[in-house]
């Protein structure tokens, strides 16, 4: 295996280049003269070229040394900045967070923005997909942290309860059911539905909640995001069932109507996912604490 250039060798080179003398350079960086000489010799051997013209004990940079010195000096300054930042108590680094659509669009985006405002030296990438995709991304180490709406079926991940949520059935104001004080299961079975796609956490929870209650479910349309479902339901085509979080604005402005369905109450849990054997960085742990 070939020898690697070390920071120690570069520090020795930089000190000798500035001071022109091995003895004084060794003293400045707290090395013995023999250790400094050996480090310089190792560096020159690795590069395949001398870096100095030697005049007795005095060393002067040759052409190659003059070209190399500013680059080495800049690299050492960057290394020093890294060391200082590591001990400053400030958070640094890059984190990729994956969230299913309800969480990502209606909860987490604002939370992450507030966290980044508190820690300007960090970079967080938020990826929004359905719960099945987030689980797959976690298993294959494409993301560092995941938040999902459905149930995690993987034994490779740790799923911690994060927030509670409620799914509500809704329709357009012009729909015949919109004026009723209570909607029965029999009435729900007679309607067409507009639902999220398979793989969505919302769809999985809806299916589990209705499989023994709605024997004849007529799905007219499957769509891949909450906004598309809301727009389709507004046309009067059928009913939808989604998180109350995603409907707050439309319900408030009378664009959609929440149906009272006492026989179909759907509550669910949001989960925070971490890898069973995945190292949790200080940044990841800090974000988890912030959004808890």
UniProtKB/TrEMBL annotation:
CDD domains: PBP2_CysL_like (cd08420). GO terms for molecular function: DNA-binding transcription factor activity; transcription cis-regulatory region binding. Residues 5-62 form the HTH lysR-type domain. Keywords: DNA-binding, Transcription, Transcription regulation. SUPFAM superfamilies: Periplasmic binding protein-like II, Winged helix' DNA-binding domain. Belongs to the LysR transcriptional regulatory family. This is DNA-binding transcriptional LysR family regulator. It comes from Sinobacterium caligoides.
